[in-house]
Amino acid sequence: MKIRRRYRCAYVIDEAKLRRIHGVLVQEFERLNPHYAFTFEVSHTPRRTVVAKTLDEVLALDNSVKSPIRSLKLGCKLESNIQNPGRSEKQKKSPKQPADAAASCEVFYDDADLYPEVDLQIECDNAEWGHNLSSLLDEQIERTLQRGYIARIKSSMFSRIIPMFALLLLLMLVQIALIPTRSTLLHNSMWLTQADIKELLAKEPPATPDDLLQRQLKNVQYQQSQPTLSWLYDWRVYAAGSPLILVLACVLYLYFACYPVTVYNWGDMGEHFATLLNRRKLL
User: Fold this and answer.
1) Within 10 Å of residue 121's Cβ, how many Cβ atoms?
2) Which band of pLDDT confidence, cut at 50, 70 and 90, is reported for residue 236?
């Protein structure tokens, strides 16, 4: 029988969690036959893959910030043709521990494709053993998955849409700021200010329509003499906009820098991830 489970989600796996997964495989394969073998494949880039024989060799590999681990495959396969001389005849005939059983299991952590995922594959002749192993590994894999809102967004299709949407929104805001609307031009050019109204009301003899027109034309000439983006020279704009810009910068930094989609939390990358966790709390 074949069992396959796929988890498309961000994940953080550290040494302790990796050893638990390894321990579950050791425990369950011991139930079938002590003659089994592990294989470990670690990739830093799609073209650089290292094959290791033990878990300690995997943990000793370089996992730097500039060249972090991108994928990890942990496999275990039963050498079914080897008889165990230490087993009794009753154990050899037991359906739970057949002497010639075939079994293999792979746990594959990968972020090389569009979305991060964990792939669990089990092939075995013993259905009860396979379902039990699947349940135990599912529990350990779930502990490595990140179910927060940001992690879910970054590990889904929205992670590609959000930067494009943010860029489009920024361009729209810039366009709105650079192109004044008709009502803005009318307000700044043709309307009389409060100072104009007071001056015209106090005028002796009373102001005529020609006086109103002359004052409006004066306002138009004054407006045309001002810089196109006169609001850029107003300190109040910066006083009001600086907190908003600061908050927006912090949110963008948190999203893009402090929430990595996949983390192999040991070595230099483990220290870097601890720094990111502290920055999350600070911001």
Assistant:
1) 16
2) confident
